[in-house]
Description:
This protein has helices at 11-47, 52-55, 81-89, 107-110, 122-129; strands at 58-63, 73-78, 135-136, 144-145. By secondary structure, it is α+β, with helices and mostly antiparallel strands.
Amino acid sequence: MRLTFRTEEDLQAQLHREYLAGERAVTEAMDRAGRAVKRAWRGQITGAGLGRRLANTIRARRYPEGTVSMDAAALIWSKAPEIVGAFERGALIRSSDGFWLAIPVDRVAKRMRGPRNARITPQLWEERTGKRLRFVYRKGRFPLRR
């Protein structure tokens, strides 16, 4: 069997065009992958109930910027890594003085305010909700309420 390969143009030019098409494909794939990971990560944050503001700290960028490359890469990161990391690790969240234990509450309770629009106090919380807060004993330290 005899095969013949004939081309109207230079083989080098054809290979160069294919290489350029490959660069565009790799760059577009990194753009899409970066956007997909960012969207998924933001969805996980909002799905966990942590809010849109924290979700919007997630960023994505493709390198090299503004040009196509066979070596394109996507970088996805958070502008608030301490906060996102704390939720991922399950870190204990405390007040600045460490006296009160934070309790997740519903939307209505989050909007409760004290006199002159001040933060609600534990006593005011008990009065308004009718729910008693319980002391949590800590050896050698002030007790917490929960």
